[in-house]
Design a protein that fits this description.
about 325 residues; alpha/beta; six-stranded mixed β-sheet; four-stranded antiparallel β-sheet; globular; disordered N terminus
Length: about 325
């Protein structure tokens, strides 16, 4: 059993962290890989007085004995700190091949499905993750080059909600304003040991290439650390996106018909940017998977034109249609 360092009031001080996102009297799940970030998160949560914590470890099986060693390490940490630990092993490489997804996507999807199963078993739908400011920079850059809209450029949220296999899950990220450097300093000062991710230095995943190639190159080109500028962009975009979503929500509350359909005449009075936000929020309300910029733009064109087509293909064998002055969703 691994010893637990003594934790006092000073131990809870971590510049940029947001203890206001958590409550000592509430139960949480916490994702722990065994790496530095998640180990710091685990000790920080204990220092905040969190007692009802379930440690969740997903073994992707990507690094052989190293992966199994990570799993044992996390289980020992959890036991030493008095927390329950739920762990599972699943070969993400096999799942990637079967599902015809990239290894990166398949691994992430498998992990979140595991979290959802634990959340259901433990009747606890609040999950804490260790994403930090440097992760945020990488996420924003990845979304930028994938052609994301405002939502993607605003990056991860401190508190977000997603539905996984029909289960609503609240995801909490108290370290989004904490730098990797601050996490390392916190770890060193407290003598916390961790497991080095054997895949972290390999240029396999997109995120790793952004971290090890793109960011150093950008820093070299601009002769400075570009991360603060990227974070500033994400915060500016987040404010703009939030404002646009509020306007779209108000419009839908006032104009959406009782059956969920939209009046074309009222839609045509919106400026193009607001029209797109209204349509995107409307589609999200129908819980249509994988609806993005392309579908929104096609429906927007359908709204503004009386010419054909008056029927747009949507994912899941659904259609957006215009008929008799209304826009509606159809399975026909």
């Amino acid at each position: 059993m691994l010893p637990t360092p003594f934790l006092n009031e000073e131990s809870s001080i971590l510049p940029g962290s947001d203890p206001g996102l958590i409550c000592a009297d509430i139960s949480y799940l916490v994702g722990v890989s065994g790496g530095r970030d998640s180990v710091v998160l685990l000790y920080w949560l204990k220092s905040q007085g969190i007692k009802n914590l379930v440690v969740c470890h997903f073994n992707h099986g990507l690094s052989g004995e190293d992966s199994d060693g990570d799993e044992r390490f996390v289980a020992q940490k959890a036991e030493a700190m008095g927390f329950d630990c739920i762990r599972v092993k699943n070969d993400s490489a096999v799942y990637a091949k079967l599902s015809r997804q990239s290894l990166e996507t398949a691994a992430r999807e498998s992990r979140y499905r595991f979290f959802a199963r634990v959340a259901k078993e433990r009747s606890c739908q609040r999950l804490i993750l260790a994403h930090h400011a440097d992760d945020q920079v990488e996420t924003v850059l990845m979304n930028l080059f994938r052609g994301s809209g405002l939502n993607g450029l605003s990056g991860m949220e401190p508190v977000s909600h997603r539905k996984i296999e029909g289960l609503p899950l609240e995801i909490i990220r108290p370290f989004l304003n904490v730098s990797r450097e601050s996490l390392e300093k916190y770890r060193e000062e407290r003598g916390l040991d961790f497991r080095e991710d054997s895949t972290n230095s390999e240029l396999i995943a997109t995120r790793n290439r952004v971290r090890h190639e793109l960011l150093p190159l950008a820093n070299d080109i601009f002769s400075r650390d570009v991360s603060p500028a990227v974070l500033r962009l994400s915060k500016i975009v987040e404010l703009e996106y939030s404002s646009a979503q509020i306007r779209a929500g108000r419009w839908l509350s006032a104009q959406r018909m009782s059956d969920g359909n939209l009046p074309v005449k009222a839609l045509r009075q919106l400026v193009p940017a607001d029209l797109n936000h209204v349509l995107h929020l409307w589609l999200k309300g129908w819980e249509i998977k994988d609806c993005g910029f392309l579908e929104v733009m096609k429906i927007s064109e359908m709204v503004r034109s009386d010419d054909k087509p008056a029927k747009i293909n949507l994912p899941g064998h659904l259609y957006a249609r215009r008929r008799s002055g209304i826009i509606f969703i159809s399975a026909e």
